[in-house]
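Practice problem: predict the structure.
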Amino acid sequence: MNSHQLAVFHEVMKTGSVSQAARNLHRTQPAISAAIKALEEELGLTLFLREGRRLVPVPEAQYLMEEATEILSRLETAQQNLANMRDRVQGSIRIVAMPGPSTYLLPEFISRFVDGKPEVRVTLATRSSPQVRSLVAAGSFDIGFCDMSRFRGDRKLYTAEELPSNCLCAVPAGHPLAHRGVITAADLNGVPMGALQPDHNTYQATSQAFQQAEAEFNLRYDAQYFLPLFHFIAAGQACAIVDVLSAESYRRSNPDEDRIRFLPFEPQIPFGYSILTPSARPLSQLAASFAKAWREYIQNILA
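Answer:
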Protein backbone atom coordinates (compact mmCIF):
# COMPACT_ATOMS: atom_id res chain seq x y z
CA MET A 1 0.00 0.00 0.00
CA ASN A 2 1.53 3.27 -1.12
CA SER A 3 0.61 6.93 -0.90
CA HIS A 4 -0.78 6.97 -4.46
CA GLN A 5 -3.18 4.09 -3.73
CA LEU A 6 -4.27 5.76 -0.50
CA ALA A 7 -4.90 9.06 -2.29
CA VAL A 8 -7.04 7.32 -4.94
CA PHE A 9 -8.96 5.34 -2.32
CA HIS A 10 -9.51 8.48 -0.25
CA GLU A 11 -10.89 10.39 -3.25
CA VAL A 12 -13.21 7.53 -4.24
CA MET A 13 -14.53 7.30 -0.69
CA LYS A 14 -14.96 11.07 -0.48
CA THR A 15 -16.79 11.42 -3.81
CA GLY A 16 -18.52 8.02 -3.92
CA SER A 17 -17.76 7.87 -7.62
CA VAL A 18 -14.93 6.51 -9.73
CA SER A 19 -15.67 8.99 -12.51
CA GLN A 20 -15.70 11.98 -10.14
CA ALA A 21 -12.52 10.77 -8.43
CA ALA A 22 -10.89 10.49 -11.87
CA ARG A 23 -11.86 14.04 -12.72
CA ASN A 24 -10.63 15.39 -9.37
CA LEU A 25 -7.30 13.58 -9.68
CA HIS A 26 -6.92 14.29 -13.40
CA ARG A 27 -6.71 10.57 -14.15
CA THR A 28 -8.70 8.22 -16.37
CA GLN A 29 -11.50 6.06 -14.91
CA PRO A 30 -9.66 2.81 -15.82
CA ALA A 31 -6.57 4.07 -13.95
CA ILE A 32 -8.65 4.79 -10.84
CA SER A 33 -10.37 1.39 -11.02
CA ALA A 34 -7.00 -0.33 -11.48
CA ALA A 35 -5.56 1.44 -8.43
CA ILE A 36 -8.51 0.39 -6.27
CA LYS A 37 -8.27 -3.22 -7.54
CA ALA A 38 -4.52 -3.31 -6.84
CA LEU A 39 -5.11 -1.99 -3.32
CA GLU A 40 -7.76 -4.66 -2.65
CA GLU A 41 -5.46 -7.40 -3.97
CA GLU A 42 -2.56 -6.16 -1.82
CA LEU A 43 -4.71 -6.04 1.30
CA GLY A 44 -6.54 -9.27 0.53
CA LEU A 45 -9.82 -7.49 1.24
CA THR A 46 -12.78 -6.38 -0.78
CA LEU A 47 -13.25 -2.69 -0.03
CA PHE A 48 -16.23 -1.96 -2.27
CA LEU A 49 -19.29 -3.87 -3.41
CA ARG A 50 -20.10 -3.17 -7.04
CA GLU A 51 -23.76 -2.39 -7.61
CA GLY A 52 -24.05 -1.37 -11.23
CA ARG A 53 -21.95 1.75 -11.60
CA ARG A 54 -21.98 2.41 -7.85
CA LEU A 55 -19.28 1.42 -5.38
CA VAL A 56 -20.60 0.66 -1.92
CA PRO A 57 -17.87 0.73 0.76
CA VAL A 58 -17.74 -2.17 3.21
CA PRO A 59 -17.04 -1.58 6.96
CA GLU A 60 -13.34 -2.29 6.45
CA ALA A 61 -13.25 0.53 3.92
CA GLN A 62 -14.67 2.91 6.53
CA TYR A 63 -11.85 1.97 8.89
CA LEU A 64 -9.24 2.42 6.13
CA MET A 65 -10.79 5.80 5.28
CA GLU A 66 -10.12 7.05 8.81
CA GLU A 67 -6.52 5.81 8.71
CA ALA A 68 -5.94 7.12 5.18
CA THR A 69 -7.22 10.57 6.15
CA GLU A 70 -4.75 10.75 9.02
CA ILE A 71 -1.85 9.36 6.98
CA LEU A 72 -2.45 11.72 4.06
CA SER A 73 -2.79 14.66 6.42
CA ARG A 74 0.51 13.81 8.10
CA LEU A 75 2.16 13.34 4.70
CA GLU A 76 0.90 16.74 3.56
CA THR A 77 2.19 18.32 6.77
CA ALA A 78 5.57 16.63 6.31
CA GLN A 79 5.79 17.84 2.72
CA GLN A 80 4.95 21.39 3.78
CA ASN A 81 7.47 21.29 6.62
CA LEU A 82 10.17 20.01 4.29
CA ALA A 83 9.33 22.74 1.80
CA ASN A 84 9.66 25.29 4.61
CA MET A 85 13.01 23.79 5.59
CA ARG A 86 14.12 23.93 1.97
CA ASP A 87 13.10 27.59 1.89
CA ARG A 88 14.87 28.13 5.25
CA VAL A 89 11.77 29.42 7.05
CA GLN A 90 11.33 26.53 9.48
CA GLY A 91 13.61 24.52 11.73
CA SER A 92 15.99 25.03 14.62
CA ILE A 93 19.56 26.28 15.04
CA ARG A 94 21.73 25.67 18.09
CA ILE A 95 24.51 28.24 18.48
CA VAL A 96 27.24 28.53 21.11
CA ALA A 97 29.53 31.56 21.18
CA MET A 98 32.16 33.27 23.29
CA PRO A 99 30.89 36.04 25.58
CA GLY A 100 31.77 39.16 23.58
CA PRO A 101 29.70 38.55 20.42
CA SER A 102 26.94 36.67 22.26
CA THR A 103 26.23 39.74 24.39
CA TYR A 104 25.14 42.09 21.61
CA LEU A 105 26.24 41.44 18.02
CA LEU A 106 25.02 37.85 17.76
CA PRO A 107 21.55 38.46 19.30
CA GLU A 108 21.14 41.51 17.04
CA PHE A 109 22.07 39.43 13.99
CA ILE A 110 19.84 36.50 14.99
CA SER A 111 16.91 38.86 15.43
CA ARG A 112 17.31 40.12 11.87
CA PHE A 113 17.89 36.62 10.47
CA VAL A 114 14.67 35.15 11.95
CA ASP A 115 12.52 38.20 11.24
CA GLY A 116 9.50 37.01 9.28
CA LYS A 117 10.29 33.35 10.05
CA PRO A 118 8.10 32.50 13.07
CA GLU A 119 8.75 28.77 12.70
CA VAL A 120 12.52 29.13 13.24
CA ARG A 121 13.72 28.30 16.76
CA VAL A 122 17.14 29.39 18.05
CA THR A 123 19.17 28.25 21.03
CA LEU A 124 22.01 30.61 21.98
CA ALA A 125 24.52 29.59 24.64
CA THR A 126 27.50 31.56 25.95
CA ARG A 127 30.71 29.71 26.80
CA SER A 128 34.46 30.32 26.82
CA SER A 129 36.29 29.63 23.54
CA PRO A 130 37.73 26.25 24.70
CA GLN A 131 34.23 25.21 25.79
CA VAL A 132 32.80 26.32 22.43
CA ARG A 133 35.26 24.06 20.62
CA SER A 134 34.49 21.10 22.87
CA LEU A 135 30.72 21.48 22.56
CA VAL A 136 30.80 21.71 18.77
CA ALA A 137 33.21 18.76 18.61
CA ALA A 138 30.72 16.75 20.68
CA GLY A 139 27.91 17.65 18.25
CA SER A 140 25.92 19.47 20.94
CA PHE A 141 25.60 22.60 18.78
CA ASP A 142 25.25 23.29 15.05
CA ILE A 143 27.45 26.39 14.99
CA GLY A 144 30.16 27.69 17.28
CA PHE A 145 31.87 31.07 17.32
CA CYS A 146 35.08 31.62 19.25
CA ASP A 147 38.51 33.18 19.05
CA MET A 148 40.96 31.87 16.49
CA SER A 149 43.10 29.91 18.91
CA ARG A 150 45.61 27.42 17.62
CA PHE A 151 44.16 24.84 20.00
CA ARG A 152 43.98 21.53 18.16
CA GLY A 153 42.70 19.05 20.75
CA ASP A 154 39.41 18.21 18.99
CA ARG A 155 40.36 19.61 15.57
CA LYS A 156 39.27 16.51 13.61
CA LEU A 157 35.81 16.66 15.18
CA TYR A 158 34.88 20.08 13.84
CA THR A 159 35.49 22.26 10.80
CA ALA A 160 36.84 25.74 11.48
CA GLU A 161 36.49 28.70 9.15
CA GLU A 162 38.97 31.29 10.33
CA LEU A 163 38.53 35.05 10.12
CA PRO A 164 41.84 36.75 10.96
CA SER A 165 41.92 40.19 12.53
CA ASN A 166 44.08 42.47 14.69
CA CYS A 167 43.29 44.25 17.93
CA LEU A 168 42.52 47.94 18.34
CA CYS A 169 43.58 50.33 21.09
CA ALA A 170 40.65 51.65 23.15
CA VAL A 171 41.34 55.02 24.77
CA PRO A 172 39.11 57.49 26.66
CA ALA A 173 37.75 60.18 24.32
CA GLY A 174 39.41 62.87 26.44
CA HIS A 175 42.83 61.18 26.50
CA PRO A 176 45.80 63.00 24.90
CA LEU A 177 46.22 59.99 22.54
CA ALA A 178 42.58 60.00 21.39
CA HIS A 179 43.29 61.88 18.16
CA ARG A 180 46.32 59.92 17.03
CA GLY A 181 46.07 58.03 13.73
CA VAL A 182 47.94 55.05 15.21
CA ILE A 183 48.89 54.27 18.80
CA THR A 184 52.09 52.41 19.63
CA ALA A 185 53.27 50.58 22.71
CA ALA A 186 55.77 53.42 23.30
CA ASP A 187 52.86 55.92 23.37
CA LEU A 188 51.33 53.93 26.25
CA ASN A 189 54.49 53.88 28.37
CA GLY A 190 53.31 53.94 32.01
CA VAL A 191 49.66 54.62 31.05
CA PRO A 192 47.18 52.67 33.23
CA MET A 193 46.03 49.70 31.17
CA GLY A 194 43.27 47.15 31.12
CA ALA A 195 43.84 43.66 29.67
CA LEU A 196 42.62 40.12 29.68
CA GLN A 197 44.04 37.87 32.35
CA PRO A 198 47.71 36.82 32.10
CA ASP A 199 47.03 33.34 30.70
CA HIS A 200 45.38 34.77 27.57
CA ASN A 201 47.47 35.12 24.42
CA THR A 202 46.49 38.78 23.91
CA TYR A 203 47.91 39.64 27.34
CA GLN A 204 51.13 37.88 26.47
CA ALA A 205 51.38 39.54 23.03
CA THR A 206 50.61 42.98 24.49
CA SER A 207 53.14 42.55 27.29
CA GLN A 208 55.76 41.46 24.75
CA ALA A 209 55.02 44.53 22.57
CA PHE A 210 55.66 46.81 25.57
CA GLN A 211 58.89 44.98 26.38
CA GLN A 212 60.16 45.34 22.83
CA ALA A 213 59.38 49.08 22.94
CA GLU A 214 61.08 49.32 26.35
CA ALA A 215 57.83 50.77 27.69
CA GLU A 216 56.24 50.14 31.07
CA PHE A 217 53.12 47.93 30.88
CA ASN A 218 51.17 49.48 33.76
CA LEU A 219 48.38 46.94 34.27
CA ARG A 220 45.61 48.38 36.42
CA TYR A 221 42.62 46.19 35.49
CA ASP A 222 42.52 42.61 34.21
CA ALA A 223 39.30 40.77 33.35
CA GLN A 224 38.23 37.46 31.86
CA TYR A 225 36.58 39.21 28.90
CA PHE A 226 37.06 42.53 27.12
CA LEU A 227 33.57 43.99 27.62
CA PRO A 228 33.93 44.78 31.36
CA LEU A 229 37.07 46.79 30.61
CA PHE A 230 35.06 49.37 28.66
CA HIS A 231 33.55 50.71 31.89
CA PHE A 232 37.02 51.70 33.11
CA ILE A 233 38.05 53.11 29.75
CA ALA A 234 34.86 55.19 29.44
CA ALA A 235 35.50 56.51 32.95
CA GLY A 236 38.94 57.74 31.84
CA GLN A 237 40.75 55.31 34.13
CA ALA A 238 42.60 53.14 31.60
CA CYS A 239 43.36 52.26 27.99
CA ALA A 240 43.24 48.71 26.60
CA ILE A 241 44.14 46.59 23.60
CA VAL A 242 40.83 44.98 22.56
CA ASP A 243 39.43 42.85 19.76
CA VAL A 244 37.41 44.34 16.89
CA LEU A 245 34.08 42.64 17.69
CA SER A 246 34.16 43.72 21.32
CA ALA A 247 34.79 47.27 20.12
CA GLU A 248 31.89 46.99 17.65
CA SER A 249 29.63 45.59 20.37
CA TYR A 250 30.40 48.58 22.56
CA ARG A 251 29.78 51.05 19.71
CA ARG A 252 26.41 49.54 18.80
CA SER A 253 25.19 49.12 22.34
CA ASN A 254 26.14 52.72 23.19
CA PRO A 255 25.20 54.61 20.00
CA ASP A 256 24.67 57.95 21.75
CA GLU A 257 27.96 57.92 23.63
CA ASP A 258 31.35 59.13 22.48
CA ARG A 259 33.43 58.29 25.52
CA ILE A 260 35.81 55.78 23.88
CA ARG A 261 37.91 55.99 20.73
CA PHE A 262 39.10 52.83 18.97
CA LEU A 263 42.34 53.30 17.04
CA PRO A 264 44.83 51.07 15.20
CA PHE A 265 47.64 49.70 17.37
CA GLU A 266 51.22 48.88 16.49
CA PRO A 267 52.77 46.40 16.62
CA GLN A 268 49.79 44.32 15.50
CA ILE A 269 48.23 42.09 18.14
CA PRO A 270 46.37 39.24 16.37
CA PHE A 271 42.87 38.36 17.54
CA GLY A 272 40.94 36.41 14.91
CA TYR A 273 37.72 34.44 15.05
CA SER A 274 36.56 30.96 14.09
CA ILE A 275 33.17 29.71 12.90
CA LEU A 276 32.94 26.05 13.91
CA THR A 277 30.63 23.31 12.62
CA PRO A 278 30.64 19.59 13.55
CA SER A 279 32.55 17.31 11.21
CA ALA A 280 30.40 14.27 11.99
CA ARG A 281 27.16 15.54 10.44
CA PRO A 282 26.11 18.03 7.76
CA LEU A 283 24.25 21.21 8.66
CA SER A 284 20.61 21.69 7.80
CA GLN A 285 19.99 24.17 5.00
CA LEU A 286 18.72 26.61 7.61
CA ALA A 287 21.86 26.32 9.76
CA ALA A 288 24.12 26.45 6.69
CA SER A 289 22.45 29.63 5.46
CA PHE A 290 22.81 31.15 8.94
CA ALA A 291 26.53 30.29 9.09
CA LYS A 292 27.08 31.81 5.63
CA ALA A 293 25.20 35.00 6.49
CA TRP A 294 27.01 35.34 9.85
CA ARG A 295 30.39 34.91 8.16
CA GLU A 296 29.58 37.67 5.64
CA TYR A 297 28.33 39.91 8.47
CA ILE A 298 31.55 39.46 10.46
CA GLN A 299 33.74 39.93 7.40
CA ASN A 300 32.03 43.26 6.72
CA ILE A 301 32.75 44.42 10.29
CA LEU A 302 36.38 43.29 10.13
CA ALA A 303 36.82 45.07 6.79
